[in-house]
């Protein structure tokens, strides 16, 4: 341990950052706790949710071994994600975050014990709505440097029930975005960088989306990831009321949805 501590102290910050970018979030935790180096906001974000890297490592391995389309690592989506690791935010507000595992095979749904064992010990799971509640806590970032982390509601329905399109109630979908604009943030475990999603990265039923209410009944979000562009489709239960036809655009081996046209309103049974 002493040898590891002195090694991290000797490393330049930029070298430590390169190591951290290629390592799971908790791998460099000890160095940060010792006050040897600063942690990036992305690492702090993942550590605010997971106490160990076991599930993230498993997800990365299964996704790489998938015989289907190669997917990026799990993605977190939520407004102001970068503020969670910002020590200048003195009174952090509760955050609502969507976990998109990108698990096309459904393998991760058979390893839920690994997921829950990797979470912080103080989590609470609400089966109704498939939510994980993480209360406010404090992370040690070095001697005398503690960071207040806000409470987090983590939506994990797509982990529990693997589907191509992620379903959320309209109210919860809107909570992932700014109140007055189509704008949010995301990061993936493989890219290790918090980035912005804006209206130009989002498609829906309307030709032009301007407010979060336009995201319902269905929308597509396009991300920059370690393997290139990646799209997630989100829908609300209201989508069942309509017969929707997706419009596609081919880019490389993948086809992306560019929007939907409404064919007709379905008759209620």
**How many domains make up the 3D coordinates?**
2
Note the overall shape. globular
Report how far apart the termini are: 66 Å
Secondary structure: helix percent: 10-25%
Largest sheet: 7 strands, mixed
Which structural class should the secondary elements be placed in?
A: alpha+beta
Spell out the helices and strands N to C.
HHHHHEEHEEEEEHEHEEEEEEE
Mean pLDDT: 83
Number of strands: 15
Strand order of the largest sheet: 3-4-7-2-1-9-10
Strand content: 25-35%
Question: Spans of 5+ residues with little confidence (pLDDT < 50)?
Answer: 1-6
- Using only C-alpha atoms, the radius of gyration works out to 19 Å
Describe the structure.
- It is a single chain.
- The protein is an alpha+beta fold and 269 residues long.
- The chain folds into 2 domains: 39 residues, no CATH class; 226 residues, no CATH class.
- The chain is 22% helix and 31% strand.
- The termini are far apart.
- The N terminus is likely disordered.
Could you write a compact summary of the structure shown?
By secondary structure, the chain is α+β, with helices and mostly antiparallel strands.
Topology, pairings included?
Blueprint (H helix, E strand, L loop, with lengths): L1 H9 L2 H9 L7 H5 L7 H7 L6 H12 L9 E4 L16 E6 L11 H7 L5 E3 L4 E4 L2 E4 L5 E4 L2 E4 L1 H4 L4 E3 L2 H6 L7 E6 L6 E4 L3 E3 L13 E8 L2 E8 L6 E10 L2 E12 L4
Parallel strand pairs: 2-7, 8-13
Antiparallel strand pairs: 1-2, 1-9, 3-4, 4-7, 5-6, 9-10, 11-12, 12-13, 14-15
